[in-house]
Input
Amino acid sequence: MKSLSITVALAALLSLAACAPLVTQNPGGKISPANVHSIDGNDRVMLKGADVVSYFTNKTYAQGNPSIKSTYENITFYFSSAQNKALFDQSPAKYLPEYGGYCSNGIVYSIPWGGDADSFEVINGKVYIFGGKGSRDAFMLDPQKNVALADKYWKDEVSGSNALLHRTKRTTVAKVAHYKTGAELAAEVAKAQK
Output
């Protein structure tokens, strides 16, 4: 009987832990869902604390400092300098990563998935985050088409949805018609690079 109680308690604990993304990545406000994490005692930190202004000012990834931060739309943003914080505070929308900071190539397939702060591209004054070099390379094969697809899926399906539930639906039972696996995308990138 005692082992059954322990098993039930562990199962309940695991199910609660699995719910964290249901709440954390759905902050409400204009940016939801968002690629945010609970770190440093702060809820909903964008891109694990990457300085979103640095993509524009330095054309590079920079890790922000938890002591230099701002909150916008229920999301905490870290900055690597007081100057970058001031720029953000003057015009936050200018510096927001597209698609809530999720992998832009994932959003092409209506899948809000990850996004590595150090894998990015600035296109027409907007920053696009990717899940790694392979995702970035695949997206950049046809950035105009991919931005249009991602914009459509973000607007029509992903924005305002629950990221975890939407991702589960789009990776299992309801893949988009143009869905490609990672291997298929890698093959397209390799072919284009020849």
In short: Residues 6-23 have pLDDT under 50 and may be disordered. The two ends are 64 Å apart (CA to CA). Residues 2-24 form the longest helix (23 residues).
